[in-house]
């Protein structure tokens, strides 16, 4: 009988709900304190944009450290760190985990972008193919309320509690976090159009942002004599290299190429980016500049370097236009400034996501989930900060259809081969 108990116990475990089988061992108060100290110190020593922020990071330690004695669960600790990291109002800093009522990430988890203009919250971009566009939200509309909460009131809980002053950057991040909403609540956006209020429901009948699907890593076709390749948020997938090579080979006889990066909100890695650029050049060239401020703070010695990209076989040598927008982020932004720095592409579009620098990932020693923060500043080769780049050629967003693509085709028709 005793020899059968282990097998019986195993069978009981097999048929338990997964959530019960996977319950982690509760952490002690000392372990939560150790994780928080690791988190705070890591950000303090490595985050490279404190000079752009109004954040009092020392006060973050005092304010959120005082809440640690009340932490009894993983979810409570996740929320505490979410709130602490939000003090940086940096869309390129985040946790690797979330709660059902966590805010969606910017820009990958939202379908609308807004700015304050003359005191009003104005839509400046709408993500193509998603709920906000489907229900009629358009650039130029004034946002009045989110889930019946007036805009200014909706911002207040999203503004950092340790800010020395609430600057416009903090207000803009809070505005877009309010518009993104949480994972578990459908949004109601109230807008004003020509003096009339409209109520829009971008998450009905389903929350599309929680289940984003694409038709492959990329989509390609020929438009007249011009090739077109759209990257479907796959710059972090190494399988993109073979997919891009195949598509570009099929389009090798075209007179020009449109590379559409407007749906790359998830960033990516330099391997994929350099592979794509390598098919568009014929000689090794620099494409971006790096700087690591942590070494300046620690040793007083500035460290910076220029990264090169090497050509790959069967280069495409015809003119190239790159399309960008508010959902071109991180590695998509790096790819854009790289091609522009190498004078290999004309850039058409709006401001990009303006994500800060290059991120590094860290893991908490006891809780075991990770967090990401920018640790390297990135620049165009000539020294322009990547997040400040704005395309010289901008489409008319009020025009019907895909104004950016139309302008790209016009540009390629007049470009010299």
TrEMBL record:
PANTHER family: INTERPHOTORECEPTOR RETINOID-BINDING PROTEIN (PTHR11261), RETINOL-BINDING PROTEIN 3 (PTHR11261:SF3). It comes from Hymenobacter cellulosivorans. Keywords: Signal. This is S41 family peptidase. Residues 1-22 form the signal peptide. Residues 188-400 form the Tail specific protease domain. The keyword Transferase does not apply. The lineage of its organism: Bacteria, Pseudomonadati, Bacteroidota, Cytophagia, Cytophagales. The keyword Signal applies.
């Amino acid at each position: 009988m005793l020899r059968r108990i282990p097998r019986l116990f195993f069978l009981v475990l097999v048929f338990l709900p997964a959530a019960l089988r996977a319950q982690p061992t509760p952490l002690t108060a000392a372990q939560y304190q150790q994780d928080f100290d690791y988190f705070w110190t890591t950000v303090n020593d490595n985050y490279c944009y404190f000079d752009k922020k109004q954040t009092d990071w020392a006060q973050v330690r005092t304010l959120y450290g005082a809440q640690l004695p009340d932490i009894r669960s993983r979810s409570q600790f996740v929320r505490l760190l979410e709130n602490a990291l939000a003090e940086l109002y940096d869309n390129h800093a985040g946790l690797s985990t979330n709660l059902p009522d966590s805010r969606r990430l910017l820009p990958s988890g939202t379908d609308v972008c807004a700015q304050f203009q003359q005191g009003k919250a104005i839509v400046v971009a709408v993500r193509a193919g998603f709920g906000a566009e489907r229900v009629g939200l358009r650039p130029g509309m004034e946002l009045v309320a989110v889930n019946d909460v007036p805009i200014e009131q909706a911002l207040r809980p999203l503004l950092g509690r340790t800010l020395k002053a609430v600057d416009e950057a903090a207000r803009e991040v809070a505005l877009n976090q309010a518009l993104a909403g949480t994972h578990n609540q459908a949004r109601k956006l109230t807008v004003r159009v020509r003096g009339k209020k409209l109520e829009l429901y971008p998450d009905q009948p389903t929350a599309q942002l929680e289940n984003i699907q694409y038709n492959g890593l990329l989509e390609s076709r020929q438009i007249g004599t011009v090739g077109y390749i759209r990257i479907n948020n796959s710059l972090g997938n190494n399988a993109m290299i073979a997919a891009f090579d195949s598509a570009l080979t099929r389009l090798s006889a075209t007179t020009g190429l449109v590379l559409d990066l407007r749906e790359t909100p998830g960033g990516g890695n330099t391997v994929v980016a350099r592979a794509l650029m390598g098919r568009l050049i014929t000689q090794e060239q620099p494409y971006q500049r790096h700087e690591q401020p942590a070494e300046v703070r620690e040793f007083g010695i500035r460290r910076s370097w220029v990264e090169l990209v090497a050509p790959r076989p069967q280069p495409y040598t015809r003119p190239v236009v790159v399309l960008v927008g508010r959902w071109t982020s991180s590695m998509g932004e790096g790819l854009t400034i790289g091609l522009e720095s190498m004078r290999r592409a004309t850039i058409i579009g709006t401001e990009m996501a303006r994500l800060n620098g290059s991120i590094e990932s860290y893991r908490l020693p006891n809780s075991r989930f990770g967090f990401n923060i920018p640790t390297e500043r990135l620049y165009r080769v000539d020294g322009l900060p990547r997040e400040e780049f704005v395309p010289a050629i901008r489409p008319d967003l009020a025009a019907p259809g895909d104004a950016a693509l139309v302008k790209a085709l016009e540009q390629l028709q007049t470009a010299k081969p």
